[in-house]
Amino acid sequence: MSITRPFQPHLIQTAPGRYEARLSGGVLTMEMHREEVPLPELCDFALRRNARRRFLFVSRVLGRHMPTRPGHLRDAAARLARKIAAGNGRGPVLFFGMSETATTLAQAVYAAWHELGCAGLYIESTRRRTGGSIAFEFVESHSHASAHLVHLPSPEDDPEGVFQKASRVVVVDDEATTGRTAAGLAAAYAAWRGIPVEAMRVELAVLARWNPPQGAAPLGEVTIHTLLDGAFEFRETGVFPEAPAQVAHADVQSNARCGARHGLSRPQEMPWSVKANPGERILVLGTGEFGYQPQLLASALEGQGATAWVQATTRSPVLTGGAIGHSRTFPSLTGEGHPEFLYNVPDDHPYDRVLLCCEDTLLPSDHPLRQVPRIEILPLPDSLPS
């Protein structure tokens, strides 16, 4: 993977396999055990407003806090899909994409898995209710918004009944340290089915696996697929602002689009028809958990000769500095009350166009994102002819 980016990583290589990131409030040191892709091509770093973990691994291929070229995201997803396909697990395979950060990567991994001739069901955890039945809930302890919901697929969503009988579960996330979140998801799913976790093969696919030098909670029988393995240590050197209150509940409104929240037996398709000029620089901007179809649009625009990037808004409160050069804060795009953020898209951004892809709610006429220079609001996916 060779990556050219408008953002240079805030990393110093101090020795082979050893790196240091100096941030305004602390120093993060890393010792890499394995780099399938060099660390500076996959990760950058920032500080976040979260007392549970002060720093943030900012992925350079995830398309969340930083823009990424769609081909770079697809390449990382394909690498993980090949690792999953090489496993020996048998029977129906159930993919879980972790909200919100990893939803784009997770469905891209599932799509690459499909391209390898494999099958299974893909479903995303969510913090938004659709009005459909909830199968189970679990908690991501280090997240700002900790509660996750998993909806129950209908027979139309899951014609083979994979959700009810999967013997192999693959959790896709951006990175893992202790593995508690994946273990908690697997335990909640097994409890819903009334079976022991040991009755399933549980796998975790992540861009990076980190083990703090002090040691991490054991992952037990979970199989790990990753592009990076390493250890880190963070030393605080400054005073951090007070963290915002943790959001311990999911949104209560039942207006979210079903989509991947109710399960997919095949990857989603790109719903928009957008023309691009050769050489145009276009940022395709997803919103919250909605990132995979915007990624497909970015790929399609590059097929027309444009240079495209994909990114998405997020709930994650991150401090400016390090990988975060600019920050916008605004009310939730879905009107559900929580604050939302867009990083690294200043008023003097380098794009000819910014295409905003809303999932199920168009922006109000006075929403602050409408003030982003050269932004265009695309139609809602479900309003377009199929």
UniProtKB/TrEMBL annotation:
One of its GO terms (molecular function) is glycosyltransferase activity. Residues 276-361 form the TRSP domain. The keyword Transferase applies. Keywords: Glycosyltransferase, Transferase. Pfam families: PRTase_2, TRSP. It comes from the Bacteria. InterPro entries: PRTase-like, PRTase_2, PRTase_dom, TRSP_dom, UCP020967. The keyword Methyltransferase does not apply. Residues 42-213 form the Orotate phosphoribosyltransferase-like domain. This is Phosphoribosyltransferase-like predicted ribonucleoside biosynthesis protein. It comes from Roseimicrobium gellanilyticum.
